[in-house]
Amino acid sequence: MTLPPLICQSVSRRFEDRLAVNDLSFSVGRGEILGLVGPNGAGKTTTLRSIAGVLPLQEGRVIIDGHDLAAEEMAAKRRLAYVPDDPAPFDVLTVAEHLEFTARLFSVDDWQPKAERLLERFELADRADALGSELSRGMRQKLSFCSAWISEPAVCLLDEPLSGLDPRGIRSARAAIQELRDQGTAIVLSSHLLELIQALADRILIIDSGVKVFEGTLQDARASVSLSENDSLEEIFFAATGDRSGRRVASLDDISPAVIPPLGSDDETGPRDDETGPA
Ligand SMILES: Nc1ncnc2c1ncn2[C@@H]1O[C@H](COP(=O)(O)OP(=O)(O)OP(=O)(O)O)[C@@H](O)[C@H]1O
After folding, report:
1. Contact at 8 Å (CB) between 34 and 50?
2. Residue 47 to residues 8, 53, 68, 251: CA-CA distances in angstroms?
3. ipTM more than 0.90?
4. What number of other Cβ atoms are within 10 A of residue 11's Cβ?
5. Of 34, 47, 63, 195, whose CB has the highest number of CB atoms within 10 Å?
6. Cα dihedral angle (245, 249, 255, 258), rounded to 10 degrees?
7. Residues sharing a CB contact under 8 Å with residue 144, sequence separation 6 or more, in sequence order
């Protein structure tokens, strides 16, 4: 039996009286990109920050590469990389020192050649000695990519990963995301760039007001809202999230697959084969 590298089970997150994420469950399989989309304030960043352990988990369960985030925090976090929407490197560390720090933290073998390759790839090699405080917005983004990639994570969370990148950086980042997927990493890719999601994601998770409104493939979504096979994710997005009065054009609930075991399941090792998501 193989568990998906990322399992989120009934995750909820409240900020005072506002429920930002509401009973959200999904999983991401090995070598799969899950596209996370939703309107402003839908709860995408809160979801990613909860999985990454940046926000303490209030309700629900997160399992990363077989490790329960609450019970085995360090083991779970060692298998996870997170590229936040606004990366903030340490002001007093250089670019090269960031990669050394990350590599040592994650016990990466033979990290130096990997770091050099990543710096070349993301066009940071000539800024290796620059301090974090000296980096532009796009350079901080590229450094965040390098730091995530060097740990060879089982699960990678990407929050608006292309923001701030120049055209060459965008091309490199897209290729790097696909290669990471091909190496078997489970990726959650959150973005408002629906063209990016449509091009890279294997499945889509649409959330609105913290609630899942759809999980599945583009084909599933098109079928459920009677769109043609040429209709884009943008059409599906509007159908799923409705107009701003809250009205949904169509319900997509019926085709959202249940892929994880119920909370409190007796089988702590996870779901049976026939209950798991894509392997
Ligand atoms: N630290 C916080 N304190 C209070 N409320 C918060 C905090 N972080 C997020 N929220 C609220 O939680 C809800 C979800 O925010 P979140 O940033 O997760 O949305 P998002 O889908 O990432 O939005 P966007 O697309 O605009 O980035 C919003 O109502 C937001 O105001």
Report:
1. no
2. 10, 10, 16, 22
3. yes
4. 24
5. 47
6. 0
7. 83, 84, 87, 89
Q: What is the mean pLDDT of residues 162-190?
A: 95
State the Cα angle at 168 between 166 and 171, rounded to 5°. 110
Task: Report all structural domains of the chain as residue ranges with CATH numbers, in order of start.
Answer: 6-79+154-275 (3.40.50.300), 86-152 (no CATH)
Per-residue pLDDT of 91-104, as tens digits, reads 999 999 999 999 99
CB atoms within 10 A of CB 93: 16
Closest CA to 189 of 34, 40, 43, 82: 34
Q: Whose CA is nearest to atom 8 of ligand 1?
A: 46
**Sign, CA torsion 199/204/206/207:** negative
User: Using an 8 Å Cβ cutoff, are 5 and 28 in contact?
Assistant: yes
Band (pLDDT 50/70/90 cuts) for residue 226 is low
pLDDT in tens, 267-277: 433 333 333 33
CA distance linking residue 64 with residue 7, whole number of Å: 7
Beta sheet of 59-64, edge-to-edge order: 18-28, 6-15, 59-64, 67-68
Residue 208 structure tokens: 């609105």
Mutate to test the pocket of ligand 1, among 12, 44, 58 (most ligand atoms within 8 A of CB): 44
- Return the residue matching tokens 């943008």: 234
Ligand 1: atom nearest CA of 39 is: 25
